Amino acid sequence: MRIIIFGATGMVGQGVLDACLRDDAVTDVLSIGRTPTGRTHPKLHETHHEHFTDFTSIQEQLAGYDGCFYCLGTSAFGMTEADYRVVSYDFPLAAARALLAAGPDIAFCYVSGAGTDGTGKTRMMWARVKGETENALLELTPRAYMFRPGFIMPLPGTTAKTKSYALLYRALAPLYPLLRRIVPNHVSSSVQVGQSMIQTVHAGAPRRVLATADINEAAASRPPTP
Prior knowledge:
globular; Rossmann fold; 7 helices; 17% strand; 9 strands; alpha/beta; 7-stranded parallel beta sheet; two-stranded parallel ribbon
């Protein structure tokens, strides 16, 4: 299984990358981003790319992959809707179109979030934009899957780029084992998100929009890793 990851240096992406590097079924990983991952592994290859609405310069590198794990994103805090839409709608749609042009059978796994609303009725800007992105991706290919995790525990050693997120996770990290016991359908780890994506590319999924319970169930289906 050959996988492309966008956003491998982010809070979610680092766990997803770790899951891929540890899973024996994944033979090759291509990270596309502006920042190096800092990881060294025989499976891992990295391509520096700056312009996420135009992949012409690296189009030839996108062929031959089984799945794309799109973990690139940003907080909507302090952003205008226009600016947030560029990152959260324009970027993933451009990536999906480029990948489908290179290989129409590729599975596109998009990290959205709990609370995303595809009806367009919500007053929350981020939820509405993410919902529009989900709808567009689902229409683009039958092999698009939306992942809507709730609380995500990052890979140990990961630092969130947004200060408010970093403070939140620092406060909640000690409670993670308790949260897993009392609200298991609302809590997962970034590695579990990666494992669920690998399983989805490998075997498909019963639905195309996966909530936390679906993510954790799919992750549990992966063989144990060292």
